[in-house]
Design brief:
mainly alpha
């Protein structure tokens, strides 16, 4: 069996939860998304692109945060396929930092 990096194992452990989070729409997204027929139109195209973009930022965040795992946490990840309790909170924080940087901070 090929060796899988700990960062990849961490991604696999949290991917489904992050996918659900990335699909949440804002109030305006729900409003405009509901104005178009399901599966077609303006709202659908925008939401697909934004979900993909969010998942990409989440993947970078998971990779960054996974590097902070201690040897004991890495061993537990390999044994159970579960990340520590603090992990998702740290991923969300890193995700926001990446989004902030992409937007150029306050004046971006």
């Amino acid at each position: 069996m090929a060796k899988v990096r700990d960062e990849r194992l961490a991604w696999l452990a949290v991917r489904d939860r992050l996918n659900r989070r990335s699909r949440r729409r804002s109030v305006l997204g729900r409003l405009f998304g509901n104005l178009t027929p399901t599966g077609t139109g303006f709202g659908t195209d925008l939401s697909r692109g934004s979900v993909k973009s969010r998942m990409m930022r989440y993947s970078f965040a998971v990779d960054d945060v996974a590097q902070r795992l201690t040897p004991e946490e890495r061993q537990a990840l390999r044994a159970t396929g579960q990340v520590p309790d603090w992990f998702l909170g740290a991923v969300e924080k890193r995700f926001r930092e990446l989004r902030w940087r992409r937007r150029g901070g306050i004046f971006g």
